[in-house]
Amino acid sequence: MSKxxxxxxxxxxxxxxxxxxxxxxxxxxIARVRKVNLSTVISEALSEGLRAHAAxxxxxxxxxxxxxxxxxFTDDEVAILDGIILEPVKRH
Length: 92
Prior knowledge:
It is a single chain. With 92 residues, this protein is mainly alpha-helical. It has a domain at 40-87. It has helices spanning 21-34, 38-70, 75-81. The protein is elongated.
C-alpha cells in the first residue's frame, strides 16, 4: 500500500476523467517506459501540478502581504529600508 510523506496510507478513490488525447498518449508512453501503470503516472503528474499551484498561490500571498505592509511608504523610504544609500558618496 502506498504511504504519504507522514507514513500514513494514501486513501484512493476511483473516478472517470476526460483528458486531452495528446496528454493521455504522452502519459501512456511514460508509463510504458517506466513500467508502471497509467494511474501511477497520472497521479504523480497531478500531485506535482497541485504542489506547483500551491507554491504559486503562497508566493502571491507573500507578495500581496509585502505590498500591503509597505504601501504607506514612499519610494525613498522603501529604498532606505532596502539598504540603498540615497546620497552620493564623496570621493577624495
